[in-house]
Amino acid sequence: MNDDQLLRYSRHILLDELGIEGQERLLAAHAMIVGAGGLGSPAALYLAASGVGRITLIDDDDVDLTNLQRQILHDTGSVGRPKVISGRDRIAQVNPGVVVDVIHARVDEAQLTALARSATVVLDGSDNFATRHAVNRACVTAGVPLVSGAALRFDGQISVFDVRDDASPCYECIFPADEPFPEQACATMGVLAPLVGIIGSMQATEAIKLITGIGKPLVGRLQMLDARRMSWHTMHCARNPECKVCGQRH
């Protein structure tokens, strides 16, 4: 690290668990973020500020005025622009040392898998089950840890699925794709603005832990938040040996 980096990341370096070695791991890391919206916004900003060297933003949507209530990666001047371009510009303001790759398209599972293979960690901030399952399958195939988050109305959830850990379930183990789950969207149900900030910031925290090897990630635990009461509930999740996605791994 140069002098500017030592100063920029000095508060990280002061942490005994992180130090210079951990910061260097962040600088060498590549985080792939699926969705540059409510969850991806705080996650991307905190990962960039923390010094993750390369970030890939994937989103096919453009910024809409209704997004600005919670998607802090964007501002009024971003309305009508692709979210990934707006996000790239904002990250450059936060930390110009971060390389930001953008994909303004709806990528298929094969593309997701190829992209995941080059990532250190994947963060899923998408808003539908089809994408979440596709991202999960891509991460299992690529052998890359996945930090999954969701938020709707006043309820949020977060977990980590790490195929490198033999005991870790994958997203399919907990939410099987062939079981009907009601598809709900914040466009019709609403979402509390700071809720996505809480969950997205936690996703960034879990990603940093996975990159640096500090602490204990949320593997095998689904954390659920009721923001109305600010109460957390933990559901312990075991791997399903019959899982269609990860059941064959050793």
Could you please describe the fold and organization of this structure?
The protein is α/β, with parallel strands linked by helices and 250 residues long. The chain has a single domain (3-236), classed as NAD(P)-binding Rossmann-like Domain (Rossmann fold). It contains 10 helices and 8 strands. Helix 4 links the parallel strand 1 (30-34) and strand 2. Helix 4 (40-50) packs parallel to helix 5 (83-94) and helix 4 packs across helix 10.
Question: Helix and strand layout, with pairings?
Answer:
Elements: H1 3-8, H2 10-13, H3 19-27, E1 30-34, H4 40-50, E2 54-58, H5 83-94, E3 99-103, H6 109-116, E4 121-124, H7 129-142, E5 146-152, E6 155-161, H8 171-174, H9 186-189, H10 193-212, E7 221-226, E8 231-236
Parallel strand pairs: 1-2, 1-4, 2-3, 4-5
Antiparallel strand pairs: 5-6, 6-7, 7-8
Helix pairs in contact: 4-5, 4-10, 6-7
GO molecular function, one term: molybdopterin-synthase adenylyltransferase activity
Keywords: ATP-binding, Nucleotide-binding, Transferase
Domain THIF-type NAD/FAD binding fold: 9-245
Compact description:
The protein has one domain: NAD(P)-binding Rossmann-like Domain (Rossmann fold, 3-Layer(aba) Sandwich). Helix content is 37%, strand content 18%. It has helices spanning 3-8, 10-13, 19-27, 40-50, 83-94, 109-116, 129-142, 171-174, 186-189, 193-212, and strands at 30-34, 54-58, 99-103, 121-124, 146-152, 155-161, 221-226, 231-236.
